[in-house]
Specification:
Blueprint (H helix, E strand, L loop, with lengths): L1 E2 L5 H8 L1 H9 L3 E5 L2 E5 L4
Parallel strand pairs: 1-3
Antiparallel strand pairs: 2-3
């Protein structure tokens, strides 16, 4: 799984991995499915 985000959240997700991604998804992240990989894009707040 590859995780991508904008701004300060990027390092948070890279450090915390799936755990932070789960929180981000619940907070309104946009998930884009491409070639079997999950790409998580965090909406700017």
């Amino acid at each position: 799984m590859r995780l991508e985000a904008n701004g300060a959240l990027k390092s948070m997700i890279l450090i915390s991995g799936i755990h932070t991604a789960g929180k981000a998804i619940k907070s309104g992240a946009v998930i884009v499915k491409t070639t079997g990989h999950d790409h998580v894009y965090i909406k700017s707040t």
